[in-house]
Specification:
Keywords: Hydrolase. The chain is α/β, with parallel strands linked by helices. It has 2 domains: about 240 residues, Rossmann fold (3-Layer(aba) Sandwich); about 110 residues, no CATH class. The protein is about 40% helix and about 15% strand. The protein has 15 helices and 9 strands. Strands 1-2-3-5-4-6-7-8-9 form a 9-stranded mixed β-sheet, sandwiched between helices. Helix 13 links the parallel strand 8 and strand 9. Helix 5 crosses helix 7, helix 9 packs across helix 10 and helix 11 crosses helix 12. It is globular, with a radius of gyration of 20 Å.
Protein backbone atom coordinates (compact mmCIF):
# COMPACT_ATOMS: atom_id res chain seq x y z
CA UNK A 1 0.00 0.00 0.00
CA UNK A 2 1.19 3.52 -0.75
CA UNK A 3 2.84 5.67 1.92
CA UNK A 4 0.64 8.26 3.70
CA UNK A 5 -2.26 5.82 3.79
CA UNK A 6 -2.69 5.48 7.56
CA UNK A 7 -6.18 6.72 8.39
CA UNK A 8 -6.25 9.09 11.41
CA UNK A 9 -6.96 7.32 14.69
CA UNK A 10 -9.92 9.62 15.33
CA UNK A 11 -11.85 8.44 12.28
CA UNK A 12 -15.46 7.60 13.12
CA UNK A 13 -16.01 5.61 9.91
CA UNK A 14 -13.23 3.48 8.52
CA UNK A 15 -12.84 4.19 4.78
CA UNK A 16 -12.27 1.40 2.29
CA UNK A 17 -9.05 1.22 0.32
CA UNK A 18 -9.83 1.79 -3.35
CA UNK A 19 -7.94 0.81 -6.48
CA UNK A 20 -8.88 2.39 -9.80
CA UNK A 21 -9.36 -0.38 -12.34
CA UNK A 22 -11.60 0.22 -15.35
CA UNK A 23 -12.86 -3.03 -16.92
CA UNK A 24 -10.93 -3.95 -20.05
CA UNK A 25 -14.17 -4.22 -22.03
CA UNK A 26 -14.98 -0.57 -21.26
CA UNK A 27 -11.50 0.50 -22.34
CA UNK A 28 -11.69 -1.38 -25.61
CA UNK A 29 -15.10 0.09 -26.33
CA UNK A 30 -13.72 3.60 -25.79
CA UNK A 31 -10.81 2.94 -28.13
CA UNK A 32 -13.11 1.56 -30.80
CA UNK A 33 -15.46 4.54 -30.56
CA UNK A 34 -12.56 6.99 -30.71
CA UNK A 35 -11.32 5.30 -33.88
CA UNK A 36 -14.73 5.13 -35.54
CA UNK A 37 -15.98 8.59 -34.55
CA UNK A 38 -15.71 11.02 -37.47
CA UNK A 39 -14.50 14.60 -37.21
CA UNK A 40 -16.74 17.15 -38.86
CA UNK A 41 -15.84 18.78 -42.18
CA UNK A 42 -13.55 21.77 -42.40
CA UNK A 43 -15.17 25.19 -42.15
CA UNK A 44 -13.82 28.70 -42.05
CA UNK A 45 -14.57 28.83 -38.33
CA UNK A 46 -12.93 25.55 -37.32
CA UNK A 47 -9.82 26.30 -39.38
CA UNK A 48 -9.02 29.21 -37.02
CA UNK A 49 -6.56 28.24 -34.30
CA UNK A 50 -6.78 31.11 -31.81
CA UNK A 51 -7.23 30.46 -28.07
CA UNK A 52 -8.98 33.80 -27.62
CA UNK A 53 -12.30 33.65 -25.75
CA UNK A 54 -13.87 35.80 -28.46
CA UNK A 55 -13.11 33.34 -31.24
CA UNK A 56 -14.97 30.28 -32.48
CA UNK A 57 -13.97 27.44 -30.20
CA UNK A 58 -11.95 24.28 -30.74
CA UNK A 59 -10.01 24.03 -34.00
CA UNK A 60 -10.41 21.07 -36.29
CA UNK A 61 -6.63 20.66 -36.45
CA UNK A 62 -6.30 20.33 -32.68
CA UNK A 63 -9.18 17.87 -32.50
CA UNK A 64 -7.77 15.77 -35.33
CA UNK A 65 -4.34 15.62 -33.69
CA UNK A 66 -5.86 14.87 -30.28
CA UNK A 67 -7.91 12.04 -31.76
CA UNK A 68 -4.76 10.50 -33.24
CA UNK A 69 -3.05 10.74 -29.85
CA UNK A 70 -6.10 9.28 -28.08
CA UNK A 71 -5.96 6.22 -30.32
CA UNK A 72 -2.49 5.50 -28.89
CA UNK A 73 -3.20 6.71 -25.35
CA UNK A 74 -2.63 4.24 -22.48
CA UNK A 75 -5.26 4.65 -19.74
CA UNK A 76 -3.55 1.93 -17.71
CA UNK A 77 -0.56 4.26 -17.24
CA UNK A 78 -2.96 6.90 -15.91
CA UNK A 79 -4.47 4.32 -13.56
CA UNK A 80 -1.02 3.41 -12.32
CA UNK A 81 -0.29 7.06 -11.57
CA UNK A 82 -3.62 7.54 -9.75
CA UNK A 83 -3.03 4.38 -7.72
CA UNK A 84 0.41 5.61 -6.64
CA UNK A 85 -1.56 7.82 -4.22
CA UNK A 86 -3.77 6.42 -1.45
CA UNK A 87 -7.33 6.16 -2.78
CA UNK A 88 -10.34 5.47 -0.59
CA UNK A 89 -14.11 5.37 -0.56
CA UNK A 90 -16.23 6.18 2.47
CA UNK A 91 -19.97 5.52 2.92
CA UNK A 92 -21.76 8.75 3.83
CA UNK A 93 -25.31 8.68 5.16
CA UNK A 94 -27.60 11.54 4.14
CA UNK A 95 -30.57 13.00 6.02
CA UNK A 96 -33.05 10.76 4.22
CA UNK A 97 -31.15 7.60 5.13
CA UNK A 98 -29.58 7.07 1.71
CA UNK A 99 -25.92 6.11 1.74
CA UNK A 100 -23.50 7.52 -0.83
CA UNK A 101 -20.07 6.09 -1.51
CA UNK A 102 -17.65 9.02 -1.82
CA UNK A 103 -14.27 8.56 -3.45
CA UNK A 104 -11.26 10.55 -2.32
CA UNK A 105 -7.50 10.66 -2.63
CA UNK A 106 -5.59 11.53 0.52
CA UNK A 107 -2.20 12.01 2.05
CA UNK A 108 -2.65 11.31 5.76
CA UNK A 109 -0.17 12.43 8.39
CA UNK A 110 0.71 10.56 11.56
CA UNK A 111 1.40 13.85 13.35
CA UNK A 112 -1.33 14.35 16.00
CA UNK A 113 -1.30 18.11 15.31
CA UNK A 114 -1.76 17.75 11.52
CA UNK A 115 -4.21 20.22 9.98
CA UNK A 116 -7.02 18.66 7.89
CA UNK A 117 -7.36 20.42 4.52
CA UNK A 118 -9.93 19.39 1.89
CA UNK A 119 -9.57 20.45 -1.74
CA UNK A 120 -12.63 20.60 -4.00
CA UNK A 121 -12.55 20.48 -7.79
CA UNK A 122 -14.93 21.97 -10.35
CA UNK A 123 -16.12 21.28 -13.87
CA UNK A 124 -14.67 20.00 -16.18
CA UNK A 125 -12.13 19.18 -13.54
CA UNK A 126 -11.74 16.28 -11.14
CA UNK A 127 -9.48 15.05 -8.38
CA UNK A 128 -6.82 14.68 -11.10
CA UNK A 129 -6.19 18.46 -10.94
CA UNK A 130 -4.66 18.11 -7.48
CA UNK A 131 -2.32 15.17 -8.08
CA UNK A 132 0.61 17.41 -9.15
CA UNK A 133 0.27 19.26 -5.84
CA UNK A 134 0.17 15.99 -3.91
CA UNK A 135 3.33 14.94 -5.75
CA UNK A 136 5.03 18.14 -4.55
CA UNK A 137 3.90 17.39 -1.00
CA UNK A 138 5.35 13.88 -1.09
CA UNK A 139 8.70 15.30 -2.18
CA UNK A 140 8.69 18.05 0.45
CA UNK A 141 7.52 15.86 3.34
CA UNK A 142 8.95 12.42 2.76
CA UNK A 143 7.37 10.62 5.69
CA UNK A 144 3.90 10.76 7.29
CA UNK A 145 5.49 12.00 10.53
CA UNK A 146 6.91 15.05 8.74
CA UNK A 147 3.69 15.93 6.92
CA UNK A 148 1.98 18.75 8.88
CA UNK A 149 -1.39 18.29 7.12
CA UNK A 150 -3.99 15.75 6.17
CA UNK A 151 -4.73 16.49 2.50
CA UNK A 152 -8.09 15.15 1.34
CA UNK A 153 -9.21 15.46 -2.29
CA UNK A 154 -12.75 14.12 -2.79
CA UNK A 155 -14.61 13.43 -6.00
CA UNK A 156 -17.85 15.40 -5.72
CA UNK A 157 -21.14 13.49 -6.05
CA UNK A 158 -21.74 12.74 -9.73
CA UNK A 159 -18.04 12.93 -10.61
CA UNK A 160 -15.47 10.19 -11.22
CA UNK A 161 -15.75 7.32 -8.73
CA UNK A 162 -18.20 8.86 -6.26
CA UNK A 163 -21.86 7.89 -6.30
CA UNK A 164 -24.23 10.00 -8.38
CA UNK A 165 -27.01 12.28 -7.16
CA UNK A 166 -30.39 10.54 -6.86
CA UNK A 167 -32.65 10.23 -9.89
CA UNK A 168 -35.86 10.99 -8.01
CA UNK A 169 -35.17 14.52 -6.74
CA UNK A 170 -33.25 17.68 -7.57
CA UNK A 171 -29.72 18.09 -6.24
CA UNK A 172 -27.97 21.30 -5.27
CA UNK A 173 -24.56 22.62 -4.28
CA UNK A 174 -25.65 22.58 -0.64
CA UNK A 175 -26.55 18.88 -0.96
CA UNK A 176 -23.05 18.08 -2.19
CA UNK A 177 -21.51 20.27 0.51
CA UNK A 178 -23.49 18.41 3.17
CA UNK A 179 -22.04 15.09 1.99
CA UNK A 180 -18.55 16.58 1.94
CA UNK A 181 -18.98 17.74 5.54
CA UNK A 182 -20.11 14.27 6.57
CA UNK A 183 -17.16 12.75 4.74
CA UNK A 184 -14.82 14.93 6.79
CA UNK A 185 -16.80 14.19 9.95
CA UNK A 186 -16.46 10.49 9.21
CA UNK A 187 -12.70 10.89 8.98
CA UNK A 188 -12.74 12.40 12.48
CA UNK A 189 -12.39 16.06 11.61
CA UNK A 190 -15.77 17.17 12.95
CA UNK A 191 -14.23 17.82 16.37
CA UNK A 192 -10.80 19.06 15.33
CA UNK A 193 -12.18 21.22 12.53
CA UNK A 194 -10.91 21.49 8.99
CA UNK A 195 -9.83 23.98 6.31
CA UNK A 196 -11.23 23.94 2.76
CA UNK A 197 -9.95 25.14 -0.60
CA UNK A 198 -11.58 25.31 -4.02
CA UNK A 199 -12.06 26.95 -7.37
CA UNK A 200 -14.95 26.78 -9.85
CA UNK A 201 -17.71 24.55 -8.38
CA UNK A 202 -15.32 23.76 -5.56
CA UNK A 203 -15.50 27.39 -4.48
CA UNK A 204 -19.28 27.02 -4.10
CA UNK A 205 -18.81 23.89 -2.00
CA UNK A 206 -16.30 25.71 0.20
CA UNK A 207 -18.58 28.71 0.68
CA UNK A 208 -21.51 26.46 1.58
CA UNK A 209 -19.40 24.59 4.13
CA UNK A 210 -18.04 27.80 5.64
CA UNK A 211 -21.46 29.38 6.08
CA UNK A 212 -23.24 26.30 7.44
CA UNK A 213 -20.83 24.16 9.47
CA UNK A 214 -18.92 25.20 12.57
CA UNK A 215 -16.29 22.53 11.92
CA UNK A 216 -15.18 24.41 8.80
CA UNK A 217 -12.67 26.76 10.41
CA UNK A 218 -11.21 28.61 7.43
CA UNK A 219 -11.68 28.93 3.66
CA UNK A 220 -9.31 29.57 0.78
CA UNK A 221 -10.64 30.19 -2.74
CA UNK A 222 -9.24 30.98 -6.17
CA UNK A 223 -12.61 31.73 -7.81
CA UNK A 224 -15.21 34.26 -6.70
CA UNK A 225 -17.33 35.69 -9.54
CA UNK A 226 -19.37 38.39 -7.85
CA UNK A 227 -20.92 41.64 -9.08
CA UNK A 228 -19.42 45.02 -8.31
CA UNK A 229 -20.59 45.88 -4.79
CA UNK A 230 -22.02 49.23 -3.76
CA UNK A 231 -19.48 51.63 -2.32
CA UNK A 232 -16.49 50.28 -4.24
CA UNK A 233 -15.00 52.73 -6.74
CA UNK A 234 -12.66 52.21 -9.67
CA UNK A 235 -9.89 53.84 -7.62
CA UNK A 236 -9.90 50.64 -5.53
CA UNK A 237 -8.92 48.58 -8.60
CA UNK A 238 -5.34 48.26 -9.86
CA UNK A 239 -4.20 48.06 -13.47
CA UNK A 240 -3.85 44.26 -13.53
CA UNK A 241 -7.34 43.87 -12.10
CA UNK A 242 -8.81 46.26 -14.67
CA UNK A 243 -7.24 44.25 -17.48
CA UNK A 244 -8.59 41.03 -15.99
CA UNK A 245 -12.10 42.49 -15.81
CA UNK A 246 -11.97 42.82 -19.59
CA UNK A 247 -11.31 39.07 -19.79
CA UNK A 248 -14.39 38.51 -17.66
CA UNK A 249 -16.45 40.69 -20.01
CA UNK A 250 -15.17 38.68 -23.00
CA UNK A 251 -16.17 35.43 -21.28
CA UNK A 252 -19.68 36.67 -20.50
CA UNK A 253 -20.09 37.83 -24.09
CA UNK A 254 -18.55 34.98 -26.07
CA UNK A 255 -17.58 32.13 -23.75
CA UNK A 256 -20.63 31.33 -21.69
CA UNK A 257 -22.80 29.48 -24.23
CA UNK A 258 -21.70 26.08 -22.87
CA UNK A 259 -22.88 27.08 -19.36
CA UNK A 260 -26.27 28.20 -20.61
CA UNK A 261 -26.66 24.84 -22.36
CA UNK A 262 -25.72 23.04 -19.13
CA UNK A 263 -28.19 25.18 -17.19
CA UNK A 264 -31.16 25.17 -19.54
CA UNK A 265 -30.83 21.87 -21.43
CA UNK A 266 -28.80 19.52 -19.21
CA UNK A 267 -30.76 16.51 -20.43
CA UNK A 268 -30.00 17.22 -24.09
CA UNK A 269 -26.31 17.99 -23.75
CA UNK A 270 -25.87 15.07 -21.34
CA UNK A 271 -27.26 12.62 -23.88
CA UNK A 272 -25.39 14.20 -26.81
CA UNK A 273 -21.98 14.06 -25.15
CA UNK A 274 -22.56 10.53 -23.89
CA UNK A 275 -22.91 9.32 -27.49
CA UNK A 276 -19.41 10.09 -28.79
CA UNK A 277 -16.04 10.37 -27.05
CA UNK A 278 -14.82 12.75 -29.78
CA UNK A 279 -17.78 15.05 -29.11
CA UNK A 280 -16.90 14.98 -25.40
CA UNK A 281 -13.25 15.71 -26.24
CA UNK A 282 -14.24 18.76 -28.27
CA UNK A 283 -16.55 20.05 -25.52
CA UNK A 284 -14.09 19.60 -22.65
CA UNK A 285 -10.86 20.11 -24.60
CA UNK A 286 -11.97 23.60 -25.58
CA UNK A 287 -12.22 24.55 -21.90
CA UNK A 288 -8.72 23.36 -21.03
CA UNK A 289 -7.31 25.21 -24.02
CA UNK A 290 -9.06 28.55 -23.54
CA UNK A 291 -9.44 28.79 -19.76
CA UNK A 292 -5.76 28.37 -18.97
CA UNK A 293 -2.79 30.73 -19.06
CA UNK A 294 -0.61 28.13 -20.78
CA UNK A 295 -2.59 25.17 -22.13
CA UNK A 296 -1.83 21.75 -20.65
CA UNK A 297 -0.47 18.94 -22.78
CA UNK A 298 -2.88 16.99 -24.94
CA UNK A 299 -2.15 13.94 -22.80
CA UNK A 300 -3.29 15.79 -19.67
CA UNK A 301 -6.53 16.75 -21.41
CA UNK A 302 -7.04 13.18 -22.61
CA UNK A 303 -6.67 11.90 -19.06
CA UNK A 304 -9.48 14.15 -17.88
CA UNK A 305 -11.77 13.41 -20.82
CA UNK A 306 -11.12 9.69 -20.50
CA UNK A 307 -12.05 9.83 -16.82
CA UNK A 308 -15.39 11.44 -17.66
CA UNK A 309 -16.05 8.97 -20.47
CA UNK A 310 -15.01 5.82 -18.62
CA UNK A 311 -17.10 6.70 -15.56
CA UNK A 312 -20.13 7.92 -17.61
CA UNK A 313 -20.29 11.02 -15.43
CA UNK A 314 -20.66 13.96 -17.79
CA UNK A 315 -24.50 14.03 -17.42
CA UNK A 316 -24.25 13.88 -13.62
CA UNK A 317 -21.51 16.51 -13.34
CA UNK A 318 -23.42 19.59 -14.54
CA UNK A 319 -26.25 19.87 -12.01
CA UNK A 320 -24.84 23.03 -10.41
CA UNK A 321 -25.32 25.11 -13.58
CA UNK A 322 -29.10 25.24 -13.48
CA UNK A 323 -28.96 26.94 -10.09
CA UNK A 324 -26.60 29.63 -11.35
CA UNK A 325 -27.95 30.39 -14.81
CA UNK A 326 -31.20 30.18 -16.73
CA UNK A 327 -34.82 30.24 -15.57
CA UNK A 328 -34.17 28.21 -12.39
CA UNK A 329 -31.22 30.33 -11.26
CA UNK A 330 -30.94 32.23 -8.03
CA UNK A 331 -31.31 35.95 -8.65
CA UNK A 332 -28.09 36.83 -6.81
CA UNK A 333 -24.67 35.35 -7.51
CA UNK A 334 -23.93 32.46 -5.14
CA UNK A 335 -20.84 34.24 -3.83
CA UNK A 336 -22.76 37.44 -3.17
CA UNK A 337 -25.74 35.93 -1.36
CA UNK A 338 -25.80 37.17 2.26
CA UNK A 339 -26.45 33.67 3.62
CA UNK A 340 -23.22 32.49 1.94
CA UNK A 341 -21.04 35.21 3.48
CA UNK A 342 -17.85 33.75 4.96
CA UNK A 343 -17.82 34.83 8.62
CA UNK A 344 -14.51 33.16 9.40
CA UNK A 345 -10.93 33.47 8.14
CA UNK A 346 -11.03 33.78 4.35
CA UNK A 347 -8.07 33.65 1.98
CA UNK A 348 -7.89 34.21 -1.74
CA UNK A 349 -5.37 33.54 -4.52
CA UNK A 350 -5.92 35.70 -7.59
CA UNK A 351 -4.85 34.50 -11.04
CA UNK A 352 -5.00 36.86 -14.06
CA UNK A 353 -6.25 34.35 -16.62
CA UNK A 354 -9.21 33.27 -14.53
CA UNK A 355 -12.49 33.24 -16.46
CA UNK A 356 -14.17 35.91 -14.39
CA UNK A 357 -11.47 37.46 -12.23
CA UNK A 358 -12.77 40.20 -9.98
CA UNK A 359 -10.81 42.76 -7.94
CA UNK A 360 -9.74 42.23 -4.35
CA UNK A 361 -12.12 44.99 -3.25
CA UNK A 362 -15.08 43.02 -4.65
CA UNK A 363 -13.94 39.73 -3.14
CA UNK A 364 -13.49 41.29 0.30
CA UNK A 365 -17.19 42.13 0.49
CA UNK A 366 -18.11 38.40 0.34
CA UNK A 367 -16.23 37.31 3.47
CA UNK A 368 -13.78 38.14 6.23
CA UNK A 369 -10.76 38.38 3.94
CA UNK A 370 -7.58 38.06 6.02
CA UNK A 371 -5.14 36.71 3.41
CA UNK A 372 -4.75 37.61 -0.26
CA UNK A 373 -2.13 37.10 -2.95
CA UNK A 374 -2.13 38.35 -6.51
CA UNK A 375 -0.28 36.15 -8.98
CA UNK A 376 0.97 37.25 -12.40
CA UNK A 377 0.56 33.84 -14.08
CA UNK A 378 -2.14 31.20 -14.01
CA UNK A 379 -5.70 30.63 -15.08
CA UNK A 380 -8.90 28.80 -14.20
CA UNK A 381 -7.33 25.42 -13.39
CA UNK A 382 -4.97 26.90 -10.82
CA UNK A 383 -4.06 23.69 -8.98
CA UNK A 384 -3.22 21.99 -12.28
CA UNK A 385 -1.44 24.97 -13.84
CA UNK A 386 0.38 26.29 -10.77
CA UNK A 387 0.50 23.51 -8.15
CA UNK A 388 3.52 25.13 -6.53
CA UNK A 389 1.64 28.41 -6.13
CA UNK A 390 -1.51 26.86 -4.66
CA UNK A 391 0.51 24.70 -2.26
CA UNK A 392 2.64 27.65 -1.16
CA UNK A 393 -0.40 29.86 -0.72
CA UNK A 394 -2.21 27.23 1.33
CA UNK A 395 0.76 26.72 3.62
CA UNK A 396 1.02 30.49 4.19
CA UNK A 397 -2.72 30.83 4.75
CA UNK A 398 -2.97 27.91 7.17
CA UNK A 399 0.03 29.16 9.15
CA UNK A 400 -1.77 32.49 9.56
CA UNK A 401 -5.23 31.27 10.52
CA UNK A 402 -5.02 27.81 12.12
CA UNK A 403 -5.10 27.60 15.88
CA UNK A 404 -4.82 24.26 17.65
Amino acid sequence: MALFDTVPTGAKIQPYNYTVSIPEEKLQQMKQLVTLSPIGPATWENLQESRDLNDFGISRKWLDNAKAEWEKYDWRATEQHINSFPNFTLPVKDDDGRVYSIHFVALFSTNPAAVPIAFFHGWPGSFLEFLPMLELLKRKYQTPEQLPYHFIVPSLPGFAFSDRPPKDKDWTTHDSARLMHRLLEGLGFGETGYVVQGGDIGSLICRSLASRYEACKAVHLNFCPAPKPDGVSNSDIDELELKALQRGDAFRTAGIAYALEHATRPSTIGLVLSASPIALLAWIGEKFLTWTDEPPSTTTILESVSLYWLTDTFPTSIYTYRHGLGPRADKISFHAQPENHINKPFGFSWFPQELMPVPKAWIAVTGDLVWYKQHTRGGHFAALERPDAILGDMEDFVAKVWQN
